Amino acid sequence: QVQLVESGGGLVQVGGSLRLSCAASGGTFSRLTMSWFRQAPGKEHEFVSVIDSSGGSTAYADSVKGRFTISRDNAKNTVYLQMNSLKPEDTAVYYCAAKIFWRDYTTRAQYGYWGQGTQVTISS
Question: Secondary structure of the chain: what % helix, strand, coil (to 5)?
Answer without folding.
Answer: 5, 50, 45
